[in-house]
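Format notes (please read before filing issues)

Several people have asked whether sequences and structure tokens are stored in separate files. They are not. Every record keeps both together, in the order shown below: the sequence lines, then the token lines. Line labels are part of the format and must not be stripped during preprocessing.
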Amino acid sequence: MTEGSERRAGTTRERLIAAASRQFAHRAYSMVSLDDILAEAELTKGAMYFHFPSKEALAVAIIDDLTEMSRAAVTESLARKMSGLETLIDLVYVLVVQDTQHEVARAGVRLLETLLNTTALPPVWQSWIEFVTTLIQKAVTEGDVIDYHDPEDIAKMLVALWAGTRRISEPDQPERYLDNLQKAWILALPGFTNPDRIDYFTQFIKRHHALAVKKVSAEALSLDLHATAVPSAPTDP
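Then the structure lines:
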């Protein structure tokens, strides 16, 4: 394959992923047809089958892209060299902003709920539980989390809390989504946090909430300005 054909193939794949993400981000998997995706991408079935043998394969590719985005978020949070519990709170806020701002992330989350038990996808939630457990163990050694609960049990509770907040929140209303997250965290803190550290982490959560709201609001304003700046097509006389 020549460099030019490789570039075109990459562009076609990106168009398919982008079109499918837009469809799956707003509609149930069962309600989206290949024709819908191809019309969105302005591509033929032959072009799609060169990259993906089925709608399910395309959906799994979106989930793979979500996984890569999540790994990048983990790397970003770990690079800040914060404490275990600070890192966990920071990471969840990064992921929620991701959910509300990127259609690949939004589509991937919806697809995970639909396809997790029907395809050969890896046990996503178990890997998150294992990672969060390591952060809770670190937080115990740092004195931020009480030591008379099993760190894995705390991790399971927090992953379920995050997943549940995703389910009851609407990504098209990011500020409400972030409000739900803040309330859930503040309610959960007394159940596992060292009492002497609850006030600190309550303020830490509120600061992250304020920064996240500012970020999603700025993004929404940018999109509105862009939409306003794009001239509409002239109408026929």
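For reference, the curators noted about this record: Residues 24 and 31 are 9 Å apart (CA to CA). The longest helix spans residues 198-229.
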